[in-house]
Amino acid sequence: MTSHSRTHEDEFRAGRELSLDHRKLGVWLFLASEVMFFGGLIGTFLHYKATIPSPESAELDTILVGINTFVLITSSLMVVLGLDAIQRGNRRGLVTFLGLTTLLGAVFLGGQVYEFVSLYRHGITLTSSVFGSSFFTLTGFHGLHVLIGVVWAALTLGKVLRGSYSVQDHVGVEAFGLYWHFVDIVWIVLFTIIYLI
Amino acid sequence: MTSSSSPSTHGASRARQYLLVFAALAVITAIEIAMTQASIAASLANAVFLAFSLAKATLVAAFFMHLRDDSRIYTAIFLLPVVLVLAFSTLMLMSAGGH
C-alpha cells in the first residue's frame, strides 16, 4: 500500500469516527461558501436600499411573489416527503415527490420570468437604476440557483427511474435536498428584504 | 455503498412532522402577505417581518435540513458564515447610516 492511499484511508476513517458522511460534509461546506456569496449580494442590496431612494420598488407585485414563495416552500415539502419515502423503501413515492419538486421549481421560475418581463415593461431594467441593477443581480442569481436545482432534481429523478437509491443508500437524494432547502432559505430572506421591508 | 447518516433512516415516518412544519411556514407567509395589505407602522411591521423570516429559515434548516438532530458539526459549518455575513451587513449598514 502506498503512503498516498494510506493518507486517504486515514481521512475516511476520521470522517467515520465523527459519524460524518463525506458526501454530506462536502455539500455542507459548499453551502457555507454559498452563504458568503449570497451574503455579499444581500449586503450590497441592503446598503443601496438604505442610502439611495428607490421609488421603483412600488412596482413590485408582492401578491404574485408571495404565491411564488408558497410554491417554493411547497417544493421543499415535496423533497422531504420524497426522502421520507425512500427511507422506508417506497421508490414510487420518491418518484412522485421528486417529479412534483421539479414541476414546482419550474413553476417558480415561470413566475420569476413573468415578474421580470412585467418590470421591464415598466422601465425597470438591469441598467435603469441602482435599484434595477441590485434587484436583478440578486434575484437573477437566486433564479439561476433554482434552475440548477430543477436540473439536479430531474437528474436525480432519472437515477431513481434507473434503479438507484434504496433504504440503505439515499445520500444522493439527501444531498440534493440540502441544496434545494438552502435555495428555499435564501428566497425566504430575499422575500423579506426586497418585497416586505 | 455507504448508508446515509440521516437520523431518520430505518425509523418511523416523519411525514407528519414535515407537514406540521410546512403548515407553519405557509401560515407565516400568509400573515406576511396580509400585513403588506394592512396599514401597520413601518417600524413595527419591519421588526415582525424580520422575526418571521428568521423563524421560517430556522424551521427549514432545523427540520427539512435535519440540523436539529444531525451532527452539530454541520450546524457549525452552516452557522459560522451566517454570523460573519450578519456582522458584515450590520457594520455596513451602520456605516451607511453615519453618512
Describe it for me?
- The complex is a heterodimer of chains A (197) and B (99).
- By secondary structure, chain A is an all-alpha fold.
- Chain A has one domain: Four Helix Bundle (Hemerythrin (Met), subunit A).
- Chain A has 6 helices and no strands.
- Chain B has 99 residues and is mainly α.
- Chain B has 2 domains: 55 residues; 31 residues.
- Chain B is built from 3 helices and no strands.
- The N terminus of chain B is likely disordered.
- The interface between A and B is large, with 56 and 53 residues.
| Biggest pleated sheet of chain B | none
Number of strand segments of chain A: 0
Chain pair sharing the greatest interface: A-B, 56 and 53 residues
Compute the separation of the termini of chain B in Å: 58 Å
Tell me the quaternary state: heterodimer
What sort of overall outline of chain B do the alpha carbons produce when their principal axes are compared?
Answer: flat
Mean pLDDT score of chain B, rounded? 87
Poorly predicted runs of 5 or more residues of chain B: 1-5
What is the CATH homologous superfamily assignment of chain A?
Cytochrome c oxidase, subunit III, four-helix bundle
> What is the overall number of helices of chain A?
6
Question: H/E series of chain A, N to C?
Answer: HHHHHH
What is the general shape of chain A?
A: globular
CATH topology of chain A: Four Helix Bundle (Hemerythrin (Met), subunit A)
CATH class of chain A: Mainly Alpha
Q: What percent of residues of chain B are in strands? A: under 5%
Q: What is the C-alpha radius of gyration of chain A, as a whole number of Å? A: 20 Å
Domain count of chain B: the total is: 2
Question: What brief labels describe this structure?
Answer:
heterodimer; A: 197 residues; Four Helix Bundle (Hemerythrin (Met), subunit A); 6 helices; B: 99 residues; mainly alpha; 2 domains
